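Tokens for chain A. Residues wanted.
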């Protein structure tokens, strides 16, 4: 039987069920100091922090808070930048210490927020491992470790046994800070905090227009209007739906995650995954793997699909991509090749044109951020809080200054690389390398040595 024969495809996340207390849409007109558009990681963090500062805040969300890309990832709280770190070092070598300070502070900020708000999200401070499936990837992790150490990051290299990762990998590099969580529960905890705060929350309230007039900004939804002195756009992949947003800010991409059926504890123990760290392979388009509290393994990405344009379409995971992920799982974990995939989910994310988190302002009265880039749990949440601090105090922190753009101008290179042909080519190169680099043999040999 195919590993995906009994897979359930969901349009929401597989981590949690949708809330049963979705708030009603806006049906009137009101005024406020700040209107935040987007109820994801960044938007909720911004609104909560503004409320702490005593700022009159309205939060508008098209579906319900936590519906978007933040809930659809693998739940790895990273402390290093996302994307190709060797390329980042080439482009931003002098800025790398500041970038590392930002990303490590972001992970610490989220850990503090979990404790402060009492969020039960199954968080484990395991760190995450850049894991190698071949000798070529092992060399890549060593080069990345050197770059990160030089920039001040806290990382360690090791063998599979030293890092506590499955026997089928050759070793790699661990980010010491950060860990794994249930991202759906984390977002649900943020939503509960918003509901308990002075923030005026309106769900099911898709914004249809944003207009500047007479020293303020008018935000129109399908049923109501908000007039604000300032607006914060925290819409991630959907940012391109607004003409006023910077051109080429991001590329909207669909990513997929899947979850196995429950696996017997003794079979999981036999993997040698003693650290419980999340795993990120060093392919051009990464594969991620992590254990869950449900005795399952969640994994994903491997293939990325680019949107043709805006507005972004509603869609479900592609069965062909899910089958491709299942083949990868069987290759990386030969002892679990018979394990089935019970569910698949996915969502749109935005990859910025700088491959870094981005935040900035449009003529002073509209701020924006896009800080997912594959590591959104930490960075999107932190940047949202920093934007709120800037609005409330008038001071830009050093971490926010690292990514801030007063005059946003973004290049064409990354959007071209992240085009449909570029992404397909990257997937093909990864698959060719997997055929010739011995990764399948390495996995079998690694597990056989301890079997």
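Reply:
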């Amino acid at each position: 039987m195919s590993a995906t024969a009994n897979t359930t495809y969901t349009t929401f996340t597989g981590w949690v069920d949708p809330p049963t207390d979705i708030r009603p849409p806006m049906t009137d007109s009101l005024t406020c100091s700040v209107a935040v558009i987007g109820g994801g990681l960044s938007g909720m963090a911004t609104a909560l922090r503004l409320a702490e500062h005593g700022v009159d805040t309205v939060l508008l969300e098209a579906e319900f808070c936590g519906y978007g890309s933040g809930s659809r990832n693998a739940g790895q709280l990273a402390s290093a930048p996302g994307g190709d770190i060797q390329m980042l070092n080439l482009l931003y070598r002098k800025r790398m210490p500041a970038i590392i300070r930002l990303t490590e502070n972001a992970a610490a900020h989220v850990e503090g927020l979990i404790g402060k708000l009492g969020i039960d999200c199954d968080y484990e401070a395991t760190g995450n491992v850049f894991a190698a499936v071949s000798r070529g990837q092992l060399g890549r992790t060593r080069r990345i470790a050197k770059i990160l150490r030089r920039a001040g990051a806290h990382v360690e290299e090791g063998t599979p046994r030293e890092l506590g990762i499955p026997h089928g990998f050759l070793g790699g590099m661990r980010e010491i800070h950060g860990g794994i969580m249930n991202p759906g529960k984390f977002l649900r905890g943020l939503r509960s905090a918003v509901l308990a705060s002075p923030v005026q929350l309106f769900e099911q309230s898709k914004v249809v227009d944003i207009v500047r007039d007479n020293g303020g900004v008018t935000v129109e939804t399908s049923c109501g209007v908000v007039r604000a002195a300032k607006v914060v756009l925290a819409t991630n992949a959907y940012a391109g739906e607004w003409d006023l947003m910077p051109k080429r800010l991001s590329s909207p991409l669909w990513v997929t995650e899947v979850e196995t059926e429950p696996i017997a504890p003794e079979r999981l123990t036999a993997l040698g995954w003693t650290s419980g760290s999340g795993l990120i392979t060093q392919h051009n388009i990464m594969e991620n793997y992590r254990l869950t509290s449900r005795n399952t393994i969640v994994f994903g990405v491997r293939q990325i699909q680019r949107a043709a344009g805006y507005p972004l379409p509603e869609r479900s995971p592609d069965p062909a991509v899910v089958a491709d992920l299942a083949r990868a799982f069987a290759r990386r974990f030969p002892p679990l090749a018979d394990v089935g995939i019970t569910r698949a989910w996915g969502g749109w994310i935005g990859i910025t044109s700088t491959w870094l988190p981005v935040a900035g302002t449009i003529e002073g009265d509209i701020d924006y951020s896009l800080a997912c880039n594959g590591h959104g749990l930490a960075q999107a949440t932190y940047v949202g809080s920093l934007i709120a601090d800037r609005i409330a105090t008038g001071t830009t922190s050093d971490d926010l200054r690292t990514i801030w753009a007063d005059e946003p101008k973004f290049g064409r290179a990354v959007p071209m690389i992240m085009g449909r042909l570029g992404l397909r080519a990257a997937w093909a190169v990864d698959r060719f390398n997997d055929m010739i680099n011995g990764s399948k043999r390495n996995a079998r040999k690694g597990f056989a040595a301890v079997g």
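The radius of gyration is 21 Å. The chain has a mean pLDDT of 94.
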